Amino acid sequence: MKQTIVDYNRCKHCTKCIARKACKTKALFQIDPEEAPAVDTKLCYGCGKCVLECPSDALTVKDL
Ligand code: SF4
Ligand code: SF4
């Protein structure tokens, strides 16, 4: 099963990946604006669209 992994060291908290058009299922969410986003593993299906939106290379799709 493919899912996105967030690299917390690379994330700059820009929120671009959370924009609705990036993730159709809204699998990425942010609780604290100062923190990196989290991935709802029930909603993410590894499409990789959010990876293209991240300017910091903080998102990677992995086969888990
Ligand atoms: S890989 Fe696709 S479904 Fe998963 S968080 Fe990124 S845009 Fe959403
Ligand atoms: S687009 Fe990348 S740098 Fe910006 S919040 Fe998302 S994971 Fe972090």
Automatic annotation (TrEMBL):
<keyword id="KW-0411">Iron-sulfur</keyword>
<dbReference type="InterPro" id="IPR017900">
    <property type="entry name" value="4Fe4S_Fe_S_CS"/>
</dbReference>
<protein>
    <recommendedName>
        <fullName>4Fe-4S ferredoxin-type domain-containing protein</fullName>
    </recommendedName>
</protein>
<feature type="domain" description="4Fe-4S ferredoxin-type">
    <location>
        <begin position="2"/>
        <end position="34"/>
    </location>
</feature>
<dbReference type="InterPro" id="IPR057431">
    <property type="entry name" value="LdpA_Fe-S-bd"/>
</dbReference>
<keyword id="KW-0479">Metal-binding</keyword>
<dbReference type="Pfam" id="PF25160">
    <property type="entry name" value="LdpA_Fe-S-bd"/>
</dbReference>
<keyword id="KW-0408">Iron</keyword>
<dbReference type="GO" id="GO:0051536">
    <property type="term" value="F:iron-sulfur cluster binding"/>
</dbReference>
<dbReference type="InterPro" id="IPR017896">
    <property type="entry name" value="4Fe4S_Fe-S-bd"/>
</dbReference>
<dbReference type="GO" id="GO:0046872">
    <property type="term" value="F:metal ion binding"/>
</dbReference>
<feature type="domain" description="4Fe-4S ferredoxin-type">
    <location>
        <begin position="35"/>
        <end position="64"/>
    </location>
</feature>
